[in-house]
Amino acid sequence: MRDYSAAFFALLAAYVKALFTPARGRHSAAARRRRSTRVRRYAPLPAPAEAGTPPTPKPAPVPVPAPRLAPPRESVPADEIALVRPYYVSHERDLDRVQAEATARLHAWMPKQPPPPGDLLAAPVEPRPGEFDELAALVRTWNDQRARRCGAVAA
Predict the structure, then answer these.
(1) Predicted local confidence at residue 69, as pLDDT
(2) What is the mean pLDDT of each run of 10 residues along the chain (155 residues)?
(3) DSSP state letter for 77
């Protein structure tokens, strides 16, 4: 009994110690938060301007028109232009080839003759002769043994 009470007091002491120690860890509010090193530091404040000189206004920027593309020299029908990169076209051809091979493998596994009509998972309607003869003989033997045991106990 002494070992159990010592273990209980040790556990109780650990809980009390954890209750009065300051929180540590990432989400504790008591700990001082550190800045992430990935966050940029603030830029230094500019030097204060002298009170006697007014700030000089900057000139307004001159708007520059956006550059325009020249019109095409000739029109080309879209049917003659490959709209995708050549490696993408070859990738699609590879996908088609792999799909065709997989379909051929699937058809090779499928039976050549159609499956018989009806429910394939249902039990057979009439048992074939001799199918359950061994099981029936075992059940009869067990029933005979049970009847002899029950008759011997009752008599």
Answers:
(1) 86
(2) 80 91 69 60 72 72 87 78 68 90 91 79 73 88 93 65
(3) -
Question: Cα separation of 9 and 77, whole Å?
Answer: 89
Judge residue 137's burial from the number of C-beta atoms within 10 Å of its C-beta, 0-12 exposed, 13-18 middle, 19 or more buried: exposed
- Cα–Cα distances (Å) from 114 to 31, 110, 111, in that order, read 75, 9, 7
- Phi/psi at 5 (5° precision): -70, -35
Distances in Å between the alpha carbon of 105 and those of 84, 108, 110, 112, 113?
Answer: 31, 5, 9, 13, 17
Q: Write the CB contacts of 82 (distance below 8 Å, at least 6 apart in sequence).
A: 89
* pLDDT score recorded for residue 5: 84
Which pLDDT value is given to residue 26? 66
d(CA 23, CA 87): 58
**Domain segments of the chain as ranges:** 84-109
Whole-structure pTM over 0.70, yes or no? Answer: no
Cα separation, 27 vs 24, in Å, equals: 8
What is residue 34's predicted lDDT score, i.e. its pLDDT?
62
Q: Is the Cβ–Cβ distance between 70 and 62 less than 8 Å?
A: no
